[in-house]
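Entry — protein

Goal — fold tokens:
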Amino acid sequence: MRLIHSPACIDEGTAWLAARDPRWATARQVAGSIPLRRHADGFPRLLLSIVSQQVSTAAADAIWARLEARGLTDPAAILSATDEDLRAAGLSRQKARYARALAGTPIDYPALRTLPTEEVVRRLTAVPGIGPWTAEIYAMFALGHADAFAPGDLALQEGARLLFALPDRPTERALRAMAAEWSPWRAVAARLLWGYYGVVRSREGVR
């Protein structure tokens, strides 16, 4: 299984994609520097994903800071916390339930590092509160899977529409089908699409 470890991996993936479709070279030129975006894996990363659902980045950062200050970032602490503790840290009732479900699920995080993306997604989405997007993003950035992709991501859909001059934003199913051609470097394609979309959106006011 190919993993992304460094900017050199992104360069390799970009070259592979651009050799098959020059529009990827355009995306890289427009986007400029492509961040590696590798994160530590494990329970805290998935808990942060739950915290970040349907709130702004600033709000998620504030909630996470309160959880860290209260020592509520490991499974044992979450399971022993009261509803009042979790609400005081900023978790809604639903997110507190998801956090407890994650804490109470015996996930072998080191073992996930050796599994293919499809199996990682299957295992993680069995946990309430963890959907395909969260699991795919975890595989991409926490595990470094070079071929992981999140076709349900709206920015990726819009980036694909812009880069490939599509008449409409592709659906999740359509984008997944498109992305099959970008294997084994779909995670690099995702980084390029995010970067390209971010620049074009700023220039043209795309919504």
In short: The chain has 13 helices and no strands.
